[in-house]
From TrEMBL:
Name this polypeptide is given: RimJ/RimL family protein N-acetyltransferase
PANTHER family: ACETYLTRANSFERASE, RIBOSOMAL-PROTEIN-SERINE ACETYLTRANSFERASE
InterPro entries: Acyl_CoA_acyltransferase, GNAT_dom, Ribosomal_N-acetyltransferase
Domain of life from the UniProt record: Bacteria
Domain N-acetyltransferase: 14-180
Gene source species: Lentzea atacamensis
Length: 188
């Protein structure tokens, strides 16, 4: 599949890029240098230019091979990358995927991810004919819990010792949203 661009009002979602016109590498390195991002996204180590370039290549391949769909969330006016949303573990036969998302530290608490994620979910449930999207996060990450709630996910349960945060095994909360669920009324 070719990368899909999504207009989400004050944000524009596009494929991650590293070319002669747009270079997301510096923003990715900056985002992943942030302690809070490293704390909860410790399975991804985008700490320098080569790994950021590899990350973009993997995101591009995901579109080409239809196993991962990803978006750089950009300010619609400045084009600055302010967040990211990735649908991965895509199963087209079942119509399911898992979502991972993050926000640039300078843009946290502004409703960027709920706005972007709801736009992605609208596309996934509509144009991509997905049925179920899963969202997981550490029990110690209240911002991720708020994203799940604002995006209309239903809490399904707790995954014991599913991840590592601060060098400790921690539980994760498992949420899902179905294509048949009502669209969330309140994003902020």
């Amino acid at each position: 599949m070719e990368p899909v661009e999504i207009n989400a009002g004050e944000y524009y979602l596009r494929a991650f890029r590293n070319d002669d016109r747009v270079n997301d590498v510096p923003a990715l390195v900056e985002i992943y240098a942030d302690e809070e991002t490293k704390r909860y996204m410790n399975n991804l180590n985008v700490s320098d230019v080569p790994t950021a370039e590899l990350f973009i290549m993997l995101m591009t391949n995901g579109w080409a091979k239809n196993y991962r769909w990803s978006w750089a969330v950009c300010d619609a006016v400045t084009a600055e990358m302010v967040a990211g949303v990735v649908l991965h573990n895509i199963d087209l036969k079942v119509g399911s995927a898992e979502v991972t998302c993050w926000t640039h530290p300078a843009h946290r608490g502004k409703g960027v991810v709920p706005t972007a994620l709801n736009a992605v979910l609208g596309w996934a449930f509509g144009a991509a004919d997905m049925h179920r999207i899963v969202y997981k996060h550490s029990v110690f990450n209240p911002a991720s819990r708020r994203v799940a709630e604002k995006c209309g996910f239903t809490l399904e349960g707790r995954l014991r010792h599913e991840s590592i945060v601060d060098d400790q095994r921690v539980d994760e909360l498992l949420w899902s949203r179905l294509a048949t669920d009502p669209y969330p009324e309140q994003l902020r």
